[in-house]
Amino acid sequence: MIYSLNGTVIHTEPNVVVIECGGVGYKCLTTMNTMSKLPAVGEKAMVYTHMIVREDAVELCGFYDTSELNCFRLLTGISGVGAKVAIAILSVLTPEQIALAVSSGDSKTFTKASGVGNKLAQRIVLEMKDKVKKMIPAGSVQMPQINSAPAVSGGNIEKAIGALAVLGYSPDEVTPFMGGIDPSWQVEKIIGETLKAIGKK
Protein backbone atom coordinates (compact mmCIF):
# COMPACT_ATOMS: atom_id res chain seq x y z
CA MET A 1 0.00 0.00 0.00
CA ILE A 2 1.36 3.41 -0.99
CA TYR A 3 0.54 5.85 1.83
CA SER A 4 1.80 9.05 0.21
CA LEU A 5 3.83 10.50 -2.66
CA ASN A 6 6.40 13.26 -2.20
CA GLY A 7 8.06 14.44 -5.37
CA THR A 8 7.83 16.74 -8.39
CA VAL A 9 4.63 17.54 -10.28
CA ILE A 10 5.34 16.66 -13.93
CA HIS A 11 1.83 16.74 -15.41
CA THR A 12 -1.69 17.84 -14.57
CA GLU A 13 -5.08 17.62 -16.26
CA PRO A 14 -8.63 17.79 -14.88
CA ASN A 15 -8.83 15.39 -11.91
CA VAL A 16 -5.35 13.97 -12.64
CA VAL A 17 -1.88 14.78 -11.31
CA VAL A 18 1.36 12.94 -12.08
CA ILE A 19 4.06 13.12 -9.40
CA GLU A 20 7.58 11.88 -10.10
CA CYS A 21 9.28 10.13 -7.19
CA GLY A 22 12.70 8.55 -7.65
CA GLY A 23 12.46 8.70 -11.42
CA VAL A 24 9.01 7.09 -11.56
CA GLY A 25 5.91 9.10 -12.46
CA TYR A 26 2.82 8.13 -10.45
CA LYS A 27 -0.53 9.03 -11.97
CA CYS A 28 -3.14 9.93 -9.37
CA LEU A 29 -6.83 10.55 -9.80
CA THR A 30 -7.68 13.51 -7.63
CA THR A 31 -10.29 16.11 -6.75
CA MET A 32 -10.55 19.63 -8.08
CA ASN A 33 -10.19 20.86 -4.49
CA THR A 34 -6.80 19.13 -4.27
CA MET A 35 -5.85 20.36 -7.76
CA SER A 36 -6.46 23.95 -6.66
CA LYS A 37 -3.98 23.53 -3.79
CA LEU A 38 -1.19 21.80 -5.69
CA PRO A 39 1.81 23.79 -6.97
CA ALA A 40 2.65 24.29 -10.63
CA VAL A 41 4.32 21.70 -12.86
CA GLY A 42 8.00 21.43 -11.97
CA GLU A 43 7.49 22.16 -8.27
CA LYS A 44 7.54 19.83 -5.27
CA ALA A 45 4.29 18.43 -3.88
CA MET A 46 3.01 15.77 -1.54
CA VAL A 47 -0.30 13.92 -1.66
CA TYR A 48 -1.80 11.25 0.56
CA THR A 49 -2.90 8.27 -1.47
CA HIS A 50 -5.43 5.47 -1.63
CA MET A 51 -4.76 2.50 -3.89
CA ILE A 52 -7.61 0.79 -5.71
CA VAL A 53 -6.87 -2.73 -6.94
CA ARG A 54 -9.24 -4.31 -9.47
CA GLU A 55 -8.95 -7.34 -11.70
CA ASP A 56 -8.23 -5.19 -14.73
CA ALA A 57 -6.40 -2.20 -13.22
CA VAL A 58 -4.56 -0.65 -10.30
CA GLU A 59 -5.27 3.04 -9.66
CA LEU A 60 -3.95 5.60 -7.22
CA CYS A 61 -6.09 8.40 -5.85
CA GLY A 62 -4.25 11.37 -4.34
CA PHE A 63 -5.40 13.97 -1.83
CA TYR A 64 -3.95 17.19 -0.45
CA ASP A 65 -4.62 16.27 3.19
CA THR A 66 -5.76 13.37 5.36
CA SER A 67 -9.20 14.91 5.94
CA GLU A 68 -10.03 14.59 2.26
CA LEU A 69 -8.48 11.11 2.13
CA ASN A 70 -10.55 9.93 5.11
CA CYS A 71 -13.70 11.42 3.60
CA PHE A 72 -12.99 9.65 0.29
CA ARG A 73 -12.65 6.31 2.11
CA LEU A 74 -15.92 6.86 3.95
CA LEU A 75 -17.73 7.77 0.74
CA THR A 76 -16.44 4.77 -1.21
CA GLY A 77 -17.62 2.53 1.62
CA ILE A 78 -21.20 3.44 0.71
CA SER A 79 -23.05 1.19 -1.73
CA GLY A 80 -23.28 2.83 -5.13
CA VAL A 81 -20.39 5.23 -4.53
CA GLY A 82 -17.27 4.33 -6.49
CA ALA A 83 -13.99 6.20 -6.72
CA LYS A 84 -15.12 8.45 -9.58
CA VAL A 85 -18.32 9.49 -7.81
CA ALA A 86 -16.44 10.12 -4.55
CA ILE A 87 -13.91 12.27 -6.42
CA ALA A 88 -16.76 14.15 -8.11
CA ILE A 89 -18.33 14.84 -4.70
CA LEU A 90 -15.02 15.99 -3.20
CA SER A 91 -14.45 18.21 -6.23
CA VAL A 92 -17.48 20.35 -5.38
CA LEU A 93 -17.65 19.89 -1.59
CA THR A 94 -14.95 20.12 1.07
CA PRO A 95 -14.85 17.54 3.89
CA GLU A 96 -16.26 20.24 6.18
CA GLN A 97 -19.22 20.82 3.86
CA ILE A 98 -19.84 17.09 3.55
CA ALA A 99 -19.79 16.69 7.33
CA LEU A 100 -22.25 19.55 7.75
CA ALA A 101 -24.57 18.24 5.03
CA VAL A 102 -24.69 14.75 6.53
CA SER A 103 -25.10 15.91 10.12
CA SER A 104 -27.99 18.21 9.10
CA GLY A 105 -29.60 15.65 6.77
CA ASP A 106 -29.11 17.87 3.72
CA SER A 107 -29.01 15.34 0.86
CA LYS A 108 -29.68 17.99 -1.80
CA THR A 109 -26.14 19.35 -1.36
CA PHE A 110 -24.69 16.11 -2.74
CA THR A 111 -26.64 16.43 -6.00
CA LYS A 112 -24.27 19.26 -6.99
CA ALA A 113 -21.75 16.55 -7.87
CA SER A 114 -21.77 14.92 -11.30
CA GLY A 115 -23.32 11.45 -11.21
CA VAL A 116 -25.18 11.95 -7.93
CA GLY A 117 -28.96 11.87 -8.16
CA ASN A 118 -31.51 12.32 -5.40
CA LYS A 119 -31.66 8.63 -4.44
CA LEU A 120 -27.90 8.25 -4.17
CA ALA A 121 -27.62 11.52 -2.25
CA GLN A 122 -30.20 10.31 0.28
CA ARG A 123 -28.37 6.99 0.63
CA ILE A 124 -25.08 8.79 1.32
CA VAL A 125 -26.65 10.81 4.12
CA LEU A 126 -28.42 7.80 5.66
CA GLU A 127 -25.44 5.43 5.53
CA MET A 128 -22.94 7.99 6.84
CA LYS A 129 -25.31 8.85 9.68
CA ASP A 130 -25.68 5.15 10.50
CA LYS A 131 -21.91 4.77 10.69
CA VAL A 132 -21.71 7.64 13.15
CA LYS A 133 -24.48 6.15 15.33
CA LYS A 134 -22.63 2.84 15.51
CA MET A 135 -19.36 4.58 16.35
CA ILE A 136 -20.75 7.03 18.93
CA PRO A 137 -23.70 5.96 21.12
CA ALA A 138 -26.35 8.62 21.66
CA GLY A 139 -25.61 10.89 24.60
CA SER A 140 -21.95 9.93 24.80
CA VAL A 141 -20.58 13.22 23.47
CA GLN A 142 -18.89 15.10 26.28
CA MET A 143 -18.47 18.76 25.50
CA PRO A 144 -15.00 20.25 25.97
CA GLN A 145 -14.44 23.37 28.02
CA ILE A 146 -13.40 25.95 25.44
CA ASN A 147 -11.76 29.22 26.53
CA SER A 148 -13.03 28.52 30.07
CA ALA A 149 -16.59 29.05 28.86
CA PRO A 150 -19.30 26.61 29.94
CA ALA A 151 -20.35 24.04 27.34
CA VAL A 152 -23.64 24.90 25.71
CA SER A 153 -25.87 22.03 24.68
CA GLY A 154 -26.77 22.32 21.01
CA GLY A 155 -24.12 25.02 20.46
CA ASN A 156 -21.86 25.27 17.44
CA ILE A 157 -19.03 23.33 19.09
CA GLU A 158 -21.32 20.39 19.78
CA LYS A 159 -22.61 20.54 16.21
CA ALA A 160 -19.04 20.58 14.94
CA ILE A 161 -18.14 17.54 17.06
CA GLY A 162 -21.13 15.69 15.62
CA ALA A 163 -20.17 16.72 12.09
CA LEU A 164 -16.55 15.65 12.60
CA ALA A 165 -17.85 12.24 13.62
CA VAL A 166 -19.17 11.96 10.05
CA LEU A 167 -15.52 12.12 8.93
CA GLY A 168 -14.57 9.31 11.31
CA TYR A 169 -13.28 11.34 14.28
CA SER A 170 -14.57 10.46 17.73
CA PRO A 171 -15.23 13.20 20.33
CA ASP A 172 -12.22 12.01 22.35
CA GLU A 173 -10.00 12.47 19.29
CA VAL A 174 -11.13 15.99 18.37
CA THR A 175 -11.68 17.74 21.71
CA PRO A 176 -7.94 18.03 22.55
CA PHE A 177 -7.53 20.09 19.37
CA MET A 178 -10.33 22.54 20.15
CA GLY A 179 -8.60 24.56 22.88
CA GLY A 180 -8.35 27.75 20.81
CA ILE A 181 -11.82 27.52 19.28
CA ASP A 182 -14.24 30.41 19.74
CA PRO A 183 -17.75 28.98 20.38
CA SER A 184 -19.25 31.90 18.45
CA TRP A 185 -17.61 30.81 15.18
CA GLN A 186 -19.72 29.23 12.47
CA VAL A 187 -19.80 25.43 12.55
CA GLU A 188 -17.91 25.09 9.26
CA LYS A 189 -15.07 27.29 10.55
CA ILE A 190 -14.86 25.28 13.78
CA ILE A 191 -14.62 22.06 11.75
CA GLY A 192 -11.97 23.55 9.44
CA GLU A 193 -9.79 24.89 12.26
CA THR A 194 -10.02 21.61 14.16
CA LEU A 195 -9.00 19.63 11.07
CA LYS A 196 -6.05 21.99 10.54
CA ALA A 197 -4.94 21.44 14.12
CA ILE A 198 -5.24 17.66 13.75
CA GLY A 199 -3.23 17.82 10.51
CA LYS A 200 -0.37 19.65 12.24
CA LYS A 201 -0.02 16.97 14.91
Structural description of this entry:
The protein is of the alpha+beta class. The chain contains eight helices and five strands. It has a domain at 4-63: Nucleic acid-binding proteins (OB fold (Dihydrolipoamide Acetyltransferase, E2P)). The chain has helices spanning 32-37, 66-76, 83-92, 95-103, 118-135, 156-166, 171-174, 187-199, and strands spanning 4-13, 16-21, 24-30, 44-53, 58-63. A hairpin with a 2-residue loop joins strand 2 (16-21) and strand 3 (24-30). Helix 4 packs across helix 6. It starts with a strand and ends with a helix. The relative contact order is 0.11.
List the helices and strands and how they pair.
Blueprint lengths: L3 E10 L2 E6 L2 E7 L1 H6 L6 E10 L4 E6 L2 H11 L6 H10 L2 H9 L14 H18 L20 H11 L4 H4 L12 H13 L2
Parallel strand pairs: 3-5
Antiparallel strand pairs: 1-2, 1-4, 2-3, 4-5
Helix pairs in contact: 2-3, 4-6, 6-8
